[in-house]
Amino acid sequence: MKVLILTGGLVTGTEASVWSSLRKLFRQWRASEHAWLDLKIKLVFAEFLIRKPRPQGADLWAPDLAEVVLATLLNQAGVEYKLATYCEAFDQPRLIEQLLAETDCVFLSTTFLRDLSEILPLIQMVKRRHNHLVLGGPLASLLAERWEGMREVEVLAAGYGEFLVPSLVDWMRSGFKELRPPSGGRLVQRGSTRVLYSGVPATNTLDFLPTPDWSLSERDRKTRYRMIYYESVRGCPYRCNFCNYPYLFTDTRFRYKSAERMVEEWEKYLTHLNIEFITCLDSLFTVPRPRLVTFCRSLLKRRLSVKWICYARADDLADERTTALMKAAGVHQVQIGIESGDQGQLDNMDKACTVESNGRALDNCRKYGITSVVSLIVGFPGESAGTLARTLEFLRQHPPDFFFLAPFSTRATGVPLLTEANRHRFDLHTADHLKTGAPYWRHRTMSCAEVGNHVRELHRSIMGEGISLHAALFHDRLLSYRAEERGALLRRQQALARGSPVTSWIFDGLNRFVDWQLAADVERCVDRSVPAELPQLTQLR
Question: Angle CA(145)–CA(153)–CA(233) in degrees, nearest 5?
Fold first, then answer.
């Protein structure tokens, strides 16, 4: 038996040309339904990213962590495997044909896929009469409860891959006849697809997980990674109103590796790999704080020198002693979910933080030379012109190095916002579409038909005023960024943001057309009835 592991996103930013990206997006658009909001968001970002400067940062490409984990698990089970990405599936069809001819089963990862409209074109590209398709990863887990079956997909794998892969290997060795769930898991038939649930660990510790072996993911013997990805946490102790992360593994408990296990793994990587950076993908690397303190002190004690990147709680970084310790231990960049500069919006989101602590966190990062990357949500229930103005003023007072803007979305299932109580609280109406990355919504203070233009204007203000660098526009500089080049990069961004009159005229026209289509489709699709009577999304447990 041989397995083809396919990972990645539909569009990654590493495509050989703009036309390559457009070709993929066109395939996705053909498979989508009610996708005018998704198109509006893409159009807003395209207006700025089309002016993206030529990459000048170091090449720090590394495969997805999902690929490395799956390769490690299959290797432990004695199963041969091949590796490919979704970009290669589109751009190198001959290579994919050869790999499909050599393999019996395909593991499709959904880590960077958003909805069925992105899944369908990929399945059509890789399904052959002789092979068997397994769809797994975060999106698969979110779709599991609403899955209606898909003839091409034999197994939908939901939950912990470490528990699922052994069951899938036994299934392959039985000639694809006998599929049994792991201990504590279950098997459910939905249409023509079997949904395989992993179950959850018996304890809160993740120290039992095998260490991903990055050597198993090398494409050739010359491949060496300067950066690798790392995971030490699953779940989240917080319950932000918009976030589904606590439920991604069909689990509601917060589980994490010990500081001792983390240091042992990092020391192993630094001994055997020539790496400069470790990017931590944990939802919150800084929680619990005692683990963070022990971890940082252990790195210093063992003199392990590596630059690391992590997601962080602003209230942890607001403590100057913690920020100073992280810097001494090698932290290079932190990504913070600021979300809004308005306290009312933070309260609506159940963020359990304050505008003041968010400001102190950003100020401390600048003081200690830690690159700050913030995310902001535009359009969450309660959003208005006033809350957006306060967010912009907050950024002026506490400018981060880089920023991401994310339009509010109701795509994720199982989030607290979609409970009956919150629907009434915010007068929230939603359209439940599975074939778009941006389903329609309307609440008391804003509609999805308006949010795209708010995102567009906030982009223009942040970039035009020289407040912060667009993280997607300068993605290649995220790891090589130095504080002393901030002024020059901001001036360069201001020039890019102005664009040309012709480009602005074209995008203004495209935006007006999409706005018209979006408004009409929202009117048709979003129910005006009492919010509690709308179809409820199943919360994963």
Answer: 55
